[in-house]
Amino acid sequence: MKLYERTLTIRVSRMKDAQALMDIDELVWTERTAPEPLRWTSREEFLRHCPPESQLVADADGTVCGYVGFREPTGLAAHAHVCEINIAVHPAYQREGIGTRLIGEAKVWAAGQGKLKLRLRVLSSNAGAIRFYRKCGFVEEGRLHREYRVGGGYADEIWMAYFLDV
């Protein structure tokens, strides 16, 4: 079933979403998309790092199919205008516009929180994600060359940003 045949709701994460979000992480964060696969050891560990309301989730007819997470980069008052994000969409729901909707809602949420900048990190080997972020208006701010050894080679870590006050 395609997205246009579903009802998609973007909402803040809840405690009951934990297992679905953990499952998405295991499917999405692989050696191709992250320095190493993401495997939560327990629900409690996940909730310590990703408490309820620290993400916006995409809910397609009652099924959590993606999220965008938020965190403060450093906790410093001088850095409070910046929000670091990460986004994942379940592979069965990719290429249906869900990621674009999540990023759009993340921009609205962040602006409502007084944030002026969204930032993220992506591996240079993840060309599809880089194209997606550029399509969403993110620009490259910096690059850590050969930062990770991935899949028998090296990948740069690219820092990208979207400025909400422009």
TrEMBL record:
<dbReference type="GO" id="GO:0016747">
    <property type="term" value="F:acyltransferase activity, transferring groups other than amino-acyl groups"/>
</dbReference>
<protein>
    <submittedName>
        <fullName>N-acetyltransferase</fullName>
    </submittedName>
</protein>
<keyword id="KW-0012">Acyltransferase</keyword>
<dbReference type="InterPro" id="IPR050832">
    <property type="entry name" value="Bact_Acetyltransf"/>
</dbReference>
<keyword id="KW-0808">Transferase</keyword>
<dbReference type="Pfam" id="PF00583">
    <property type="entry name" value="Acetyltransf_1"/>
</dbReference>
<dbReference type="InterPro" id="IPR016181">
    <property type="entry name" value="Acyl_CoA_acyltransferase"/>
</dbReference>
<dbReference type="InterPro" id="IPR000182">
    <property type="entry name" value="GNAT_dom"/>
</dbReference>
<feature type="domain" description="N-acetyltransferase">
    <location>
        <begin position="8"/>
        <end position="165"/>
    </location>
</feature>
